[in-house]
């Protein structure tokens, strides 16, 4: 009987693992937090795609329904609550768990802060336009900046919920870029220059998340990079997880 694997995706690594698992001798359930994320996942006879955000109770109910032999947490590095819920679930149900991690980047020339709120406090002491690349979840925090509607350019995913949130919070339409990455260094630089960015706010999304392209582009555009750091995690990189899965499926 083929094993059942539950992959919680939401990152490039999650999509890569789903693509690798497509067609393999396993029943695979892949969860994405949004319908847009689910639309990016591969289609295959052994892949079952679930869309929608899951709290702990919903995770536990789904695990009870599909009885996974293994859970792979490939959610975003900043989705700390989700990762903790997955950890608790696997401990309670005695399910094998793997966490996919990406290495942090070196931030020699950047200012590193601990949170979006800390980034706002740092920016409150300074003047200049801000280019915000941290996603729709942090939009509300940056409305504390004076003249934020004209001063802050936000780059968000091209989905209705994100765009509606930005508009409802009062961001000016001319300062909203709704676009799916990855973004090249040249495209980043053009955007930073177009909006006259003095500061570029980013998360430490790692090389696979486009951090290097943003960092180099910000330097070339004459903008200061402000990085919201993340907690260190232990786990497997994508290539290591593929090796684990290869051995697991050959048993």
From TrEMBL:
Q: EC class of this enzyme?
A: oxidoreductase
Q: One biological process GO term for this chain?
A: cobalamin biosynthetic process
Keyword hit for Oxidoreductase: yes
What are the EC numbers? 1.3.1.54
Q: Does the keyword Secreted apply?
A: no
Q: In which pathway does it act?
A: Cofactor biosynthesis; adenosylcobalamin biosynthesis
Keywords of the record, alphabetical order, are: Cobalamin biosynthesis, Oxidoreductase
Q: Which GO terms describe its molecular function?
A: precorrin-6A reductase activity
Q: Which NCBIfam families match?
A: precor6x_red (TIGR00715)
How is this protein named in the record?
A: Precorrin-6A reductase
Q: Which gene encodes it?
A: cobK
């Amino acid at each position: 009987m083929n094993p059942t694997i539950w992959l919680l995706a939401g990152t490039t690594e999650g999509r890569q693992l789903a693509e690798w698992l497509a067609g393999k001798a396993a029943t695979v359930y892949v969860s994405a937090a949004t319908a847009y994320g689910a639309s990016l996942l591969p289609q295959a006879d052994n892949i079952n795609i679930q869309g929608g955000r899951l709290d702990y109770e919903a995770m536990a109910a789904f695990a009870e329904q599909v009885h996974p032999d293994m859970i792979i947490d490939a959610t975003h590095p900043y989705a700390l609550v989700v990762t903790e819920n997955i950890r608790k679930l696997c401990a309670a149900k005695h399910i094998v768990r793997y966490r996919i991690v990406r290495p942090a980047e070196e931030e020699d020339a950047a200012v590193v802060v601990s949170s979006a709120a800390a980034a706002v406090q740092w920016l409150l002491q300074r003047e200049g336009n801000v280019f915000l690349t941290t996603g729709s979840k942090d939009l509300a925090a940056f409305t504390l900046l004076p003249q934020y509607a004209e001063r802050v350019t936000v780059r968000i995913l091209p989905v209705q919920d994100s765009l509606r949130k930005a508009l409802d919070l009062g961001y000016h339409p001319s300062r909203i870029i709704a676009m799916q990455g990855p973004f090249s260094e040249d495209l980043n630089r053009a955007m930073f220059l177009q909006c006259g960015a003095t500061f570029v706010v980013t998360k430490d999304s790692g090389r696979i998340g486009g951090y290097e392209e943003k960092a180099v582009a910000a330097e070339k555009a004459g903008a200061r990079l402000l990085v919201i750091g993340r907690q260190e995690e232990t786990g497997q990189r994508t290539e290591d997880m593929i090796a684990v899965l290869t051995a697991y499926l050959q048993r």
